[in-house]
Amino acid sequence: MEDSMKTKSFKESEEVGLRRGPWTLEEDTLLTNYILHNGEGRWNLVAKSAGLKRNGKSCRLRWLNYLKPDIRRGNLTPQEQLLILELHSKWGNRWSKIAQYLPGRTDNEIKNYWRTRVQKQARQLNIESNSDKFFDAVRSFWVPRLIEKMEQNSFTNCCPQNNNNKSRLPPQSYDSTSTQTYTDISSQNPGLSNIDGSSSSSTFMPDLTTVPYFIDPNTIIDGSMCNQEGNYQELGGYIPEMEEYYYMGNSDIGTECHVAEAYEDVTQDPMWNVDDIWQFRE
DNA sequence: AAAACAGGCAACCGCTGGCCC
DNA sequence: TGGGCCAGCGGTTGCCTGTTT
């Protein structure tokens, strides 16, 4: 970005007395209270009416990315990461479109995740993050590990008797040449067809009948989740085009619901081991 | 203990398209 | 039809914080 343009914008903001930079608690409160009482409406009007010295754009961004009550914060779950990988393979950098499939997550958050985590992994392999080679690497190594994490988390967090049992499932070894199959989510969700309208043939998604989606990190239990009242509910995701949630059925969970105390932060894990890196660097 | 560095993320920017007059 | 306004989008920047030296 040219400095001259930046300077111009900055001066323009200053000339009309608009604030920039990080939001204060007071500003957050003003904006939140105003929107809760009056709705979103026109953002420039919102900014003025709420008594904020911000432009409408800034208010909109702050509300949508931070203040909105249904925003989910915290690390992305393996399920969400899988979905992002899948959807990005279909749509590329269409962050807002991808965000529609991750309730409570913002396009900004997903974009940041991609740029900081995914592109970092690509750099480790010394390949372009949008290249076929990188997608191959993701399919062969990253996805299986995410699934492994999901299974481990599910196992760790389920069933009280298991929590007392120090043994763990043996780590599954995923061979990149294995015939493990992944079912295209688009075959079950019309809204997820490829951009060109075809059904996907090279997607990352595991079989939906075995993998839970949109697990709340704080309420995982054996492939299901507890609502705030502690009641069990099955996992699902929101399909914007159909304006409905889909659910992962066939769960033979008991009715007792236990909230997991901790959730392993899989986003910090390196997705490749040394062998993987050598294989893709040759 | 302090400086340097790196990573994460909130916030900004310009561009685009839709709507209205 | 064209100009102005606005919302939404994706790209980029820069600050803050944690880690390393």
Which terms would index this structure?
single chain, mainly alpha, Arc Repressor Mutant, subunit A, 2 domains, three-stranded antiparallel beta sheet, two-stranded antiparallel ribbon, 5 strands, DNA-binding
What can you tell me about this protein's structure?
The chain has 282 residues and is mainly alpha-helical. The protein folds into two domains: 3-67, Arc Repressor Mutant, subunit A, CATH 1.10.10; 78-281, no CATH class. The chain contains ten helices and five strands; from the N terminus they run αααααααααβββββα. The protein has helices at residues 3-15, 25-38, 43-49, 56-67, 78-91, 95-99, 107-125, 132-157, 160-163, 274-281, and strands at residues 220-221, 224-226, 232-234, 236-239, 244-247. The strands form two sheets. Strands 1-2-3 form a three-stranded antiparallel β-sheet. The protein has a two-stranded antiparallel sheet with strand order 4-5. Strand 2 and strand 3 (232-234) form a beta hairpin. Helix 3 (43-49) crosses helix 4 (56-67) and helix 5 packs antiparallel against helix 8 (132-157). It is elongated, with a radius of gyration of 22 Å. Residues 1-9 and 158-268 have low confidence and may be disordered. It binds a DNA duplex (21 and 21 nucleotides) through residues 1, 5-6, 9, 20-23, 42-44, 56-58, 60-62, 64-66, 93-96, 107-109, 111-113, 115-117, 120.
